Amino acid sequence: MTVTTKALEKKFPKHVAIIMDGNGRWSEKKGKHRVFGHKHGVKALRKAIVFASEHKIEALTIFAFSSENWRRPKEEVNMLMELFFTVLGREVKKLHKNNISLKIIGDVSAFSDRLQKKISNAEALTENNTGLAVNVAANYGGRWDITNATQQIAKQVKDGTLAIDDIDESLVNNSLSLAEFSDIDLMIRTGGDYRISNFLLWQLAYAELYFTDVLWPDFNADTFQLAVDVFSGKERRFGQTSAQVSS
């Protein structure tokens, strides 16, 4: 039997989303404060970015801080904000050097002026880079994203610049936080929970979902590769039949 080159090719996703879960539990298992886990989670993120960049994945969207995370203990929230600030300052130059762009999605108005300025500077520095696009969801929620898009559209209707009959899926999509990117192909969640936790509700419509018990600080290239291998073995039909896809 002849095996074609096409059959041997590894099918890689263009856009990957990751819910980085398990930092706190990883720390607790080691008898450490939760801060310890979050700091080691940054190292895991660095590995994920390197993997995605090396394998020519176009976009990597990560869930760093949800709109519900404000409910966590104040001490932990403050620490996360400081860690976010520090990481932005330390890592953005490395991203820029490697032709990687950075975008923060979410309601950044809730952050301090100092952090908002850091975010703006980081995005401006990397906006023209043409390699991997890293999107960090911070103070983000999928329902917020859709609500925000709906408000933008409603304002256009109210102003008379948009007719109700012109509202379609494409318009809604183009009003969302990731409008310039393709939908998610593969969503990975670490930490053992089987839910999407209000993350990219619109963009995950046809994504392949991969859940692993690996806690985020232990995530590495091998874990990422396993998820990609599972993705590669899936037949993505998008509502069609297998016969239609293979024809």
Sequence-ordered SSE layout with sheet pairings:
Layout: H1 5-8, E1 15-19, H2 23-29, H3 34-54, E2 59-66, H4 74-97, E3 101-105, H5 113-126, E4 133-140, H6 142-159, H7 169-173, E5 186-189, E6 208-211, H8 221-232, H9 242-246
Parallel strand pairs: 1-2, 1-5, 2-4, 3-4, 5-6
Helix pairs in contact: 2-3, 3-4, 4-5
Description:
The structure is a single chain. With 247 residues, this protein is an alpha/beta fold. The chain has a single domain, classed as Decaprenyl diphosphate synthase-like (Undecaprenyl pyrophosphate synthetase, 3-Layer(aba) Sandwich). The chain is 45% helix and 14% strand. It has a six-stranded parallel β-sheet, sandwiched between helices. Strand 3, helix 5 and strand 4 form a beta-alpha-beta unit. The chain is globular. The N terminus is likely disordered.
